[in-house]
Amino acid sequence: MIGGLLVVGGIATAAKFGEKPDNPQLPGVPWVVHDGTRPQPKKVETQGVVSVLPPADAKVLFDGTNLDAWTSPDWEVRDGIMIAANKNLQTKDTFRDFQMHIEWRIPADREVDGQKGGNSGIFLMDLYEVQILACYENKSYPDGQAGGMYGQYPPLVNASRPKGEWNSYDLVFKAPRYEGEKMVEPAKLTLFHNGVLLHNAKEYQGPTQHKKLASYPATHPERGPIRLQWHRDPVEYRNVWIREVGDYDEE
């Protein structure tokens, strides 16, 4: 769920599974934003986390030892894991088009209910959210499930592992392209969850919104940081790296 000033309101008013909120209609489908009556993604059992070590040209964002790559690091580092706490975490560096690997888990003893208890998110360019949520046995509105392009598209399938087990995201993000104040190519996301494809170059409708339709602004930064969300849940992360993606024939 989207962070910042909307966290408290989002927790209190989030639509529940089976409920249809009074939110705007999504384009091209018979569902509204955060529609709890939308069909649940098909469950696909996986063998678990796909752990990939950073290649030589990657920027390591977390190797289990410190939070040097992040600003205002309030999160705890323990036993090679960083644990969400107190506020959002944001990278010092900014990025445009990139490949990213990240591993996460929800603590085994964490009580979850819909969007509560096991919620975080990855904000690409600090604007476009990929949802993190306990979803193995926990139901919520589909566009807010694990791997969802929050508030826009649910994952193609539910590839989540149980609480206490690690999950992996491998994603490729392409930033939107602008000509002056006109968006000419939307942002795109390709995402694998535990090795299973959830989005295939899917276009974002705009920067992530909560309970509103997304749209592209007249101006947009060329680069932006990665933000990991603090949603009052101690979600755990490890093995986080990113590599920028250039054009063909670049040396």
Kindly provide the radius of gyration, computed on alpha-carbon positions and rounded to a whole number of angstroms. Answer: 17 Å
- What summary fits the major beta sheet? 8 strands, antiparallel
- Tell me how many strands there are: 17
At the fourth level of CATH, the homologous superfamily is: Exo-inulinase, domain 1
Shape: globular
- Which structural class best describes the helix and strand composition? mainly beta
Please give the CATH class: Mainly Beta
Average residue pLDDT: 94
What is the string of helix and strand elements?
Answer: HEEEEEEEEEEEEEEEEE
- Count of distinct structural domains: 1
* Reported CATH architecture: Sandwich
Could you estimate the helical fraction of the residues in percent?
Answer: under 10%
CATH topology-level name: Jelly Rolls
Total count of helical runs of at least 4 residues: 1
Distance linking N and C termini: 39 Å
Unreliable residue stretches = 1-12
Measured by DSSP, the beta-strand proportion falls in 25-35%
Give your account of this protein's structure.
- 3% of the residues lie in helices and 31% in strands.
- It has one helix and 17 strands.
- It has a single domain, classed as Exo-inulinase, domain 1 (Jelly Rolls), CATH 2.60.120.
- With 251 residues, the protein is mainly beta.
- The termini are far apart.
- Strands 2, 4, 5, 7, 11, 14, 15 and 17 form an eight-stranded antiparallel β-sheet that branches. The protein has a five-stranded antiparallel β-sheet with strand order 3-6-16-8-9, with no helix packed on it.
